[in-house]
Specification:
Layout (H helix, E strand, L loop, with lengths): L8 H30 L9 H8 L33 H10 L4 H4 L17 H12 L6 H7 L4 H13 L16 H4 L31 H13 L9 H6 L4 H11 L3 H4 L2
Helix pairs in contact: 1-2, 3-7, 5-6, 5-7, 9-11
InterPro entries: Cyt_c-like_dom, Cyt_c-like_dom_sf, Cytochrome_c_Oxidase_Subunit
GO molecular function, one term: heme binding
Protein name: Cytochrome c553
């Protein structure tokens, strides 16, 4: 006998298909507009439109939002070419007097016997920038913050002039004639890491980038780790944080050991 009722075999399969389709659609919406967007690091729950855009893979920075936090200013020092110019002998003399307060950590002639950075022969704009960052609270170190607190702009210029005038701790610059770690020589284009020598000397020197040759290894390791972990944030465009964040422990060790390799020679 044929079943002509609503729940005939044909109608039952149609009903099951409709229910299955509705359930599948509901699950797809839940996963696509809820679960997947929320798993993304920059997810913001700002309504259905945001969820649709995030499900489609649109970065949150493309979306118009007025509640996003402004980027944290990591330094307010503006580097100018004149900061790198040679200073007068009077400025060097004043800086030598001021530097008496720095000898315990940085050495009598700017060559540290501890893990403090060597300052002899350092670029003057580098010293001025770091002193300003300490004074303005953009770089943390209890001793340096206390010492820089009462320094005037002229004092900082004089200190920079004095240390820049000392017999250079920086030995012959890095060249391709020696064995270089990969990150120093060519960087890592796949990770968007520029070679160290493109900023820190050897091939080119970016204004404000310190000379690293002969620096104490442990100091370099500490600073790279601080950049990597975000504890040091006074790189204006986050260039060092962006690089260090991608470096492995082994790479930090290798780069630091390479730049510290001439420390003993520079100390004589």
């Amino acid at each position: 006998m044929r079943d002509h009722g609503f729940f005939s075999r044909k109608n039952r399969w149609t009903w099951v298909s409709v229910v299955a389709l509705v359930a599948l659609t509901a699950a797809s919406i839940l996963i696509g507009f809820g679960l997947l967007p929320s798993a993304q690091a920059d997810f913001r729950a700002q309504g259905l439109w945001d969820s649709i855009c995030r499900a489609a893979g649109v970065p949150s920075k493309w979306l118009d939002s007025t509640d996003q936090k402004a980027p944290v200013i990591s330094t307010n020092v503006v580097l100018l070419p004149e900061m790198a110019k040679q200073a007068s002998s009077a400025s060097v003399g004043r800086g030598a007097t001021l530097a008496l307060n720095c000898t315990m950590c940085h050495g009598a002639q700017g060559m540290s016997r501890s893990d403090a950075p060597n300052l002899a022969g350092q670029y003057p704009e580098v010293i001025r920038k770091q002193l300003l960052d300490y004074k303005n609270g953009n770089r943390a170190n209890p001793i340096m913050v206390a010492l820089s607190k009462n320094l005037s702009d002229q004092d900082m210029s004089d200190l920079a002039a004095y240390y820049a005038s000392l017999p250079k701790a920086r030995t012959a610059p890095t060249t391709y004639d020696e064995t270089l770690p990969a990150l120093v020589r060519v960087g890592d284009p796949m990770r968007n890491i520029a070679p160290c020598i493109s900023c820190h000397g050897g091939v080119d020197q970016k204004l404000g980038a310190p000379w690293l040759e002969g620096m104490p290894k442990q100091y370099l390791v500490q600073q790279l780790q601080a950049f990597k972990e975000g504890h040091r944030r006074n790189d204006g465009q986050q260039q060092m944080r962006n690089v260090a964040r991608l470096m492995t422990v082994e790479e930090i060790e290798a780069v630091s050991a390479f730049y510290a390799r001439k420390a003993a020679v520079a100390g004589h």
